[in-house]
Specification:
Helix content: 10-25%
Structural class: alpha+beta
Order of helices and strands: EEH
Radius of gyration: 20 Å
Distance between the termini: 25 Å
Length: 86
């Protein structure tokens, strides 16, 4: 997935506090379906230009995206992806 890269800490680096979040997903009868885990960094401690350089966020609901993709498929529209700078 290449979501992040492990690097050695240098004296000029500020390390953000972080934690692992564990969750157990269960079936309706209570039996274990799967175990999930994610790594969470304290984003509220980040400073623009020091800990990060760009941000992005979803500006539409997933249901809207699905509806547009269904329409595009049905109507044989040409679709493309684009990112806009903040």
């Amino acid at each position: 997935m290449d979501a992040w890269e492990l690097v050695d800490q240098t004296p000029d680096m500020r390390v953000l506090p972080s934690t692992w979040a564990f969750k157990v997903k269960r079936f309706p009868d209570g039996t274990v379906k799967k175990f999930k885990v994610r790594f969470c960094a304290r984003g509220d401690r980040q400073e623009h230009g020091i800990n990060f350089w760009e941000t992005w966020f979803l500006v539409v609901h997933w249901s809207t995206i699905r509806m547009v993709l269904v329409l595009a498929t049905k109507e044989r529209w040409v679709s493309a992806q684009c990112d806009t700078p903040c």
